[in-house]
Amino acid sequence: RPECQAWTGTLLLGTCLLYCARSSMPICTVSMSQDFGWNKKEAGIVLSSFFWGYCLTQVVGGHLGDRIGGEKVILLSASAWGSITAVTPLLAQLSSAHLAFMTFSRILMGLLQGVYFPALTSLLSQKVRDSERAFTYSTVGAGSQFGTLLTGAVGSLLLEWYGWQSVFYFSGGLTLLWVWYVYRYLLSGKDLVLALGVLAQGLPVSRHSRVPWRRLFRKPAVWAAVISQLSAACSFFVLISWLPTFFKETFPDAKVSYTTAVPPLQVTRPTLPCSRLHGRPSPAGYRAV
Question: Which of 54, 132, 147, 166 could form a disulfide with 16 if both were Cys (CB 3.0 to 4.6 A apart)?
Answer without folding.
Answer: 147
